[in-house]
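Hi W.,

Here's what went into the run:
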Amino acid sequence: MTIIDTMPKLLRENARKYPNRVALREKRFGIWLSITWAEYLKKVRNFALGLQQLGFQRGDFVGIIGDNRPEWVITELAAQALGGASMGVYQDSTPDEVLYLVSQADLKFLIVEDQEQVDKVIEIWDQLQGIEKVIYYDPRGLRNYSQDYLMAFPDVEALGEQVDAQEFDRQVDMGQASDVAILGTTSGTTSRPKVALITHHNLISMGKGLMSVDPFSIDDEFLSFLPLAWIGEQMISIACGMQAGFALSFPEKAETVQADLREIAPRIIFAPPRIWENMLSEVQVKVQDADRLKRWAYHRAIQFGYYLADKRFQKQPITFSERILEHLAKFFVFNSVLDQLGLRYVKWAYTGGAALGPDVFRFFHALGVNLKQGYGQTETTGICVVHRDGDIKFQTVGLPMPGAEVSVDESGEILVRGDVRFAGYYRNEKATQEAITPDGWVRTGDAGYFDEDGHLIVIDRAKDVMTLHDGTKFSPLFIENKLKFSPYIREAVVFGGGDYPFVTCFINIDFGNVGKWAENHQIAYTTYTDLAQKPEVYDLIRKEVERTNADLPPSARIYRFLLLHKELDADDAELTRTRKVRRGYIANTYQEIIDGLYSDKDSIQIESIITYQDGRTAKLTVMLRIDTMPDVLTPALQT
Amino acid sequence: MEQMSRFARPYQISPPQRHELSIENVSLSFGGVNALSGVSLTVTPGQIFAIIGPNGAGKTSLLNCICGLYRPQRGRILYGRHNLVETPTHLLPKIGIARTFQNIELFSHMTVLDNLMLGRHVHMKKNILTAMLYWGPAEQEEIRNRQFVEHVIDLLEIQSIRKKQVGALSYGLQKRVELGRALAMNPGLLLLDEPMAGMNVEEKEDMARFILDINEEWGITIILIEHDMGVVMDISDQVAVLDFGRRIGLGTPDEVRNNPDVIRAYLGEDHGL
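Here's what came out:
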């Protein structure tokens, strides 16, 4: 009996223990279709042996580009079974980004979803090196493609089906815990993404660590709707899913996630702040549209919910009558709100990937969702610090997980080591040495400290923390999150500190919600740009800025702001593929606008270049209004 | 379960009938205005055939003649063994001809799914008695038709609006739903009247891709009227040019582009009137 220390071995074990239980679930043609663990194993075996026939050797890498589908994880497991590893590429990457990542990782095969992705690969084919085959799993529109490197997924499976199945077992048995399992791409907020090597040991330790905190079981449900290329999605879907044996469901389409969440009613959910913020906005907007009785009931219930949540945060005992009231609030209000969001049966909810604003955090606790903050990064296999049930403080990210050792060095940088520490960057010795200290600590690049209860508090990226003119240190992220609590604000970028005498910011309005608000107030608009520049919209956002300022120390208050003419977009490199703001890039690209914010002008004219999905560009000249908050007279300005 | 595979084609439910469409010397006039004079064309099965021309050239009139909304005074329109000039309009879906309109003609208070299921109506054969009972044959039929509609939904990527009311959708999406309803009839020949009018660049691109997919994946012959020359030249196999009711050009996009008569019509020189 071999030790079960790799993902393919876990798959084989699950197929033996629960052959007829559902492993994967996918919605096709409006119906949820299931794949059992036995079928899953068979598909992985056939695809793996097919790849082997095509020349895959131990240590080779495959790249996967596509939405979350069974074929995605089948490919990942197949590559691992053959002693190789897979790298996920975000499905909305541009051809240049794909080219960059493929060449960074020396991939041998590309497994892509559909025509859109195949077209990208064809566009860069002449510059790609080392790719032997491009395998697609959605044939629509591809029937007349004649490139000889293209191959259909079922054809590879058919190739593998002819090979003796024992070869698969032999290959799986050769696998070791120290083998590389996945190539994780770092999010690239500061530079181009790097390729981090993550071993089976990392994945298994991470899963064990998290599950010793929150014991997932085979009966849990999980909807895998975030890109599998992101380590956060790999964490629960693969690392925990393989060990606990719960079913993984894939949404029908990216646009149907909300409806699919309702249908699957997951017990575990892991989502970055953006998703939680969107859910909050949705509730706020829907409540505004509801009739009076419902509005009244909601406001009464949520007030009580906030009261209870705060009591729990402070670990005060809940009285018997409060418990009864809580049940009433649940029965009349919260259950239906949660049902709409698909969170009704959630037992463990996590946020990670970036900081979630405390207001959003409190809101979900008021609704009774057990939302926990997690902290980690690709280099620490996704998560290494997490809240424990009943010990949640919204300003912290929780306690270190078993398997991870966390400390803060004298400069205030958070360091991590232990079983979750990655094996290094692929073919980048220099970056590896910079990231891992001689004693084996990963430098996270984040500034933070431990509070009196041992909870870790993350301030921000160490580089981003700003020193204001009066000497106080402040995190722009903190202000941005406060702003983003508003349903009308989708994204905000705060500037200040250093040479700047006061704090300013760019705001992206939420097109859907502000559009709806404009409709209700009979304000006609055409495009996003037009809406964002309406004086009424400025007044609306101004109130949100005032609200944010009220909670901030005087020197950190926003003095001037403007509404950007376009939404920040990953296609324009303003956000990372995980939708984090790339502050450095934005500061460079929008220098003109930032200069405007620090001038005394009321508006500035800028030229903006818009890139369409197909790469074509168009030029626009826009006038941007700048609003000033006269009450925020900073000392620097008074002098 | 196999037919649920991404690699399965919807034909397995029922293959469309495809025929050659030949328009022979068709003339149509309203009072003294000659909308069409002696137009002849042949559209072979599996083609994407574009009809272009300046405003008032007779493009929509020709489409209306094919689908029986107008009856030309002279000429024949043959589709397989049917002369469409004499075929009652309600029989067209049975013959395998469906169309979309320049202005959206959907039931805006019904859901997308109901609108699409309506497109299947022509293929529902159960009588009122079995339908009232529902269970048994009528239920089976409903499931089969829903399956077909789900293939349409999948092809046009409108999963997320399946249960939304049509009236609440954006213009671009409504256009897509209208195309979906036409597809639900399982036509062999699809007539599209300005499928991209009023769309932005990205919506047009999506629509062009859907038209290609319908043509390639489902093998449906397509006749479309479109003003965006970029799109027409990119996706069509054959292009016919009309001007003042006469056919002044016919050929592949390249041939048409270099045709002196066509250039003259588009540059607005006098027409020898």
